[in-house]
Amino acid sequence: MKETHIERQVIFFERIKELVPSNTSLVFELTELLEISTDSMYRRMRGETSLTFDELEIICNKYKISFDSFINLESNNVTFNYTLMEEGEISFKKYLVSMRDDLLRIKAAKNHLITYACEDIPIFHNINFIDIASFKMMYWMKAILNIPSLEGVQFSSNAVSDELKELGKEIYQLYCSIPSVEIWTDTTIKGTLNQIEFFWDAGMFNSADDAIHVINSLKKTLEIIQKQAESGSKVFDRIKTPEEENNYSFYFSEIEITNNCVLVNLGAAQAVYLGHLTFNTMNTSNATYCKQTTIWMENLIRKSTLISKVAEKNRYRFFQGMYTAIDSLLERIMKT
Question: Any idea where the domains of the chain sit in the sequence?
Fold first, then answer.
């Protein structure tokens, strides 16, 4: 039987409850957000008073919920939020702030989980080391978007401000605190290696040392990921809290992954994030889209090999293959 408007409104608020910390009063938060009385808010949450369009828009923007997840559109249309990167450090800062805020929202939700199908190394890992993070940023702006102001500008390891470095560390620590599943392939690292090689061949590095710093930064990133996979936790260098135990599952897939896809579980709610043009991001909480993505992810995992905590030989071979590719590029640059 099709849900009534009242039932959908009650379910809508039940989903929002999953997105806020357990010690947060949702009624109080929404009362302040909508600037209405507590009694009026309770009537809306019980479905006795219908939300206005303006109120629904405010709530959806606050909790980053797609409008169609509320009205349950029976069509093939899916609404996406689109985070667009533009020229300059200010835009990159906004991008990182948005990423940090999304991770804070995910961490606050009950029964949270991130499942990441990796065409490329997840930016959460890259951003832990500023050399590789700043390289990724400049590659996107210079090689992909051809921003005029960067014409003739070479890459330097000092390209990113201390403010962005600190923001990157905060994002990485947040990611480490959230349980996640990552699915990698043999080609997950190749995109980054190809980007570094392209910059080198095109004379876009300020010096060989800058190129070497980026490559070594990439290798350090992988060394940490390998230790996390071995431990089955993103925390491996100190005593873990109960929440940090077994919070990292790493799979190797022989099936090609053609785009970064992230499925986020937020209790009863879900969201999907898709990469677009390298750094841009599209996301939706459309229930049908999230359900189909869940099915795809589950099928991909079933056909993949778990190499975190178990399958030591397979894990060693997988990471050795990536180190060999890194060392080959490093040797080529050092001989030039």
Answer: 5-63, 81-335
Q: DSSP labels for 209-277? A: HHHHHHHHHHHHHHHHHHHHHHHTSS--SSPPPGGGTT-EEEEE-SS---S-EEEEEETTEEEEEEEET
Tokens representing 99? Answer: 């990423």
User: Residue 96 CB: number of other CB atoms within 10 A?
Assistant: 20
Buried/exposed 60-87: b ≥16 CB within 10 Å, e otherwise: beebbbbbbbbeebeeeebebbebebee
| H or E segment to which residue 121 belongs | none
Task: Take residue 250 and report the two structure tokens written for it.
Answer: 């790493």
262-274 as b/e, with b when 16 or more CB fall inside 10 Å? bbbbbbebbbbbb
Token readout for 18 is 């999953």
- Per-residue pLDDT 10s for the chain (336 aa) are 446 777 788 888 887 877 776 667 888 889 999 999 999 998 988 888 988 888 888 888 887 776 665 555 555 777 787 777 666 566 777 888 888 988 998 998 888 999 999 999 998 998 888 788 888 877 877 776 666 777 788 887 676 678 878 888 899 999 999 999 999 999 999 999 999 999 999 899 988 999 999 999 999 999 999 999 999 999 877 777 777 788 999 999 999 998 899 999 987 788 899 987 766 788 888 888 899 999 999 999 999 999 999 999 999 999 999 999 999 999 999 987
**What whole-number distance in Å separates Cα of residue 26 and Cα of residue 209?**
52
Q: 45: exposed, middle or buried (C-beta count within 10 Å: 0-12, 13-18, 19+)? A: buried
Both tokens assigned to 234: 């993103």
Q: Could you give the count of Cα atoms lying within 13 Å of 240 in the half-sphere of its Cβ?
A: 17
How far is Cα 88 from Cα 130, in angstroms, rounded to an integer? 17
